[in-house]
Every structure is written in structure tokens, then in C-alpha cells.
Amino acid sequence: MADWNTRPATAGDLEAVAEVRAVVMRPDLERLGRYDEHRVRQRLRDGFVPAHTLVIEADGAFAGSVALRPAEDADWLEHFYLAPHVQGRGIGTAVLAGLLDTADRDGRRVRLNVLQGSPARRLYERHGFTLEREDAVDVFLVREPRPRYGWFDGESGVRPGDGTSS
Questions:
Q1: DSSP assignment of 36-102, as one string?
Q2: 161 DSSP 8-state letter
Q3: Most CB within 10 Å of its CB: which of 75, 109, 111, 126?
Q4: What whole-number distance in Å separates Cα of residue 51 and Cα of residue 31?
């Protein structure tokens, strides 16, 4: 795995995130007949909220982004893009696992959508996301929070199955 980290996004990250989105989404959007050079970037610009976004850096350089936007009944995982040159190194899996661990700890459901036929769907399903609904373009997935146990996270002394506490 590459040397990587995340940091809070700033307004100055907008164009870098918009560009990586355009590059990453282009094959799927073209396959669906929906690629538009301007629209692919503008949709990101219209929904970019630095306060909910992390920038992913690999080997000291911008490599992608991910956002977790709070909503009434779930957090929405959005703008999760990794530049092609860092894909396949385990960074996306590690970033997603960290976000889901926090959602589990907070008891929060997580929702997202991917384009029909996107290979990213497999990553999400490996992490417990299930089909909620779909249409001709998008697949909407949801993941319920997973219970946490004291023997695992140190929050309580109760050990499941043995009826004791420490």
C-alpha cells in the first residue's frame, strides 16, 4: 500500500476534486451514454461542501476525495474518487473501512449511489452495503450500523456469550 493520509478539504481543493471526478467517472458515464465534459465537473462544484469532505493524499500528492454528508436518517457517502494511478493499492478500502467504523460507533446508517455497472459496487458490497433501490442509471445502496462489542472496542467489559463483565 502507498504512503497515504487524509486531511480536511478546503475550498481550494474544489477543482482538483472536480477533475479527478471527471477522470474516474468518464468510462461509466460514456458506457451509459451520459458523459458531458462540463456537466461531470459542474455537478461536483454544485454539491461540494468542504466541511463534509476529506482529501486523500498518496505519496504526498492529491489522490482523491470522499465526503460523508449527514442527513436526517443516514449519512450519505459521496464524492469518493481515487485517481487511477493509486487505485488497487488498498487505499480506498482503508478509507472506507475507517468511515464505516466511525458510522458504526455513532450508530449511523450510511447510504450511497453508484452508476449502473460500476465496479465500485463490489467494494461497497464487500463492506456490507445492500441494494435499496435502482433505476436505469443509478444503484442506491444502504448499510446499517453494525453493533460494537466491549471485548472488541474496549467500551464495556461485557463479553458476548459468557454473561460476565470485567
A1: -TTHHHHHHHHH--GGGEEEEEETTEEEEEEEEEE-SS-EEEEEEEE-GGGTTSSHHHHHHHHHHHH
A2: T
A3: 75
A4: 32
DSSP 145: P
* Cβ neighbours, 10 Å, residue 6: 19
- Kind plus residue range of the DSSP H or E element containing 7: strand 4-8
Q: How far is CA 153 from CA 30, 159, 166, in A?
A: 44, 11, 14
Q: Is the pLDDT of residue 54 over 60?
A: yes
Q: Span 78-96, mean pLDDT?
A: 94
What cell does 2 get? 502507498
In this prediction, residue 165 has a pLDDT band, given cuts at 50, 70 and 90, of: very low
Say if residues 57 and 4 touch (Cβ distance below 8 Å).
yes
Please count the other Cβ atoms lying within 10 Å of the Cβ belonging to residue 58: 19
DSSP annotation of 154 reads S
The contacts of residue 112 (CB under 8 Å, 6+ apart) are 76, 77, 78, 80, 124, 129, 140, 141
CA gap 63, 65 in Å, rounded: 7
- CA pair distance 14, 45, nearest whole angstrom: 7
Kindly give, in sequence order, each residue whose CB lies less than 8 Å from that of residue 118, ignoring residues fewer than 6 positions away: 28, 139
